[in-house]
Amino acid sequence: MNQLKWGTPAALRELLCEVVSWKSMTLTEGERLFPSKVQGKLQELTYFQENSSHLGLHDADLGRRFLTALYQHPKAEKTIVLISHFDVVNTEEYGDLEEFAFQPEILTKLLHGKKNELPEDARRDLESGDYLFGRGTMDMKMGLVMHMGLIEKASVEQWPINLLLLTVPDEEVNSAGMRAAVSKLVEMKEKHDLHYTLFLNGEPVFTQQPGDTQYYVYSGSIGKIMPSALFYGKETHVGEPLGGITAPFIASFLTQRMEWNTSFQETDLGETTPLPVTLQLKDLKMEYSVQTPYRAAALYNVFLMKRNAAEVMDIFEKIAVDAVLACNEVYNKICTEQGVVPVGQVKVIRYEDLLKHALDKFGSDFLESTKATILANDAWDDREKSLRIADTLMIQCQELAPAIVLLYAPPYYPAVNSSDNELVEQCIDFAKKYGHETFNLSVEQIHYFNGISDLSYFNYVDEEEGWTTFQSNTPVWGESYSIPFDDMKQLQAPVLNIGPFGKDAHKRTERLHTKSAFEIVPVLVEEMVRMVMGK
Ligand SMILES: [Zn+2]
Does the N terminus or the C terminus of the chain have fewer Cβ atoms within 10 A? Predict the structure, then answer.
């Protein structure tokens, strides 16, 4: 009988603490180094010593890599892909405890000395002794650790199924890891003759409201898209305010109409998306001066269930047209009262039309070099680059001003849902029954994981090709950002998320329920995999 390295709750706990100690905040050196450390761990398993080609590190971007580890049974066709992300969010909010954020056992002990600084709920959980605190314990190093334990057991006991462990960087920012991994999964499917049966993510349970302790499994993941706007007015001097039109003035009309706009809200299977909010609103003036700000930009967050990028752009455009009508009305009225001729009427332009206009005017060489200059600026992220490209084109095409240019800024997470899939229904029924009978655990299903996840890049369906609207209105598309829609369409298998229970992801009270993480959920997932295997 083979001894398992990660076969007990204590061993999983120890592995988790080790993996958490490998700091891997998004866009840091730690994130770049992390996957080779996981590789090192998996190389300790006999299976990967004998099948070293089944363990691979692959390039994502910016020197970051993702890891694949395939356990393949010679006679099995079914393949479950075990998905996790290994990047974590920053730790400033830990304050004087920041250096211990990645040492869960020590941090949890130290917090006892700072109990009165903790919110009530966190303090009670600390006192209960049922939780392990620390950055990444919940979101989501435990998901990865659980998958490592599972692949070890399957390989030692030679389960008649294939398990492909995939762990990626950058989930917390742009999902560059998963967007790169999609094409690798398509390639591996051909190379190893795999049949993808299920994409199983291990993100933790996210509370539905504060204080919620219900255990959930998820048969889909909510989508997210960012309709954005460049407001381009006409400059003037403060002494002559009606000699121009400021961008903040124009922006105020659209922003007020976008915030909490219920026309973006979707309901499916009894669940409803949160309302849109403004994520950023800023003028693009670099320093203070008495010249009025005539360029500004806004990013709005919109959640999705069924809609594609084309449908969201149509709604966005309608709202923008309504906003400029109101804006022009107020503006014209004051001009009439003050006896001034308006500088123009604000128009609504989609980025693709601005691009076409600029192309006709200047030709493609000019456009390419303009884009290249902006893309080369490493100080700017994809959102800033998107806005700056639109801005630079508008500076060259002032005959279109004043205007609101509508565009998309990355990232885009399409919504995904497998609630009506037969296998997913069986898995959820199994989890409910097994959880109840074995652990007296009540398991509830949620149709859309509300925390945003990499499952968005699987099982893509878009018969109307709505994604092309995203492609043509995203200024950085094909340069610093793209989504492999064609490869995503080839990864047709249901999605499911089952992970440990925890609380306060992204907060300094991030914590993992130890019994759920080390004793219950690994067994639940293992038995569910056996059930799938036996079918
Ligand atoms: Zn996560």
Answer: N
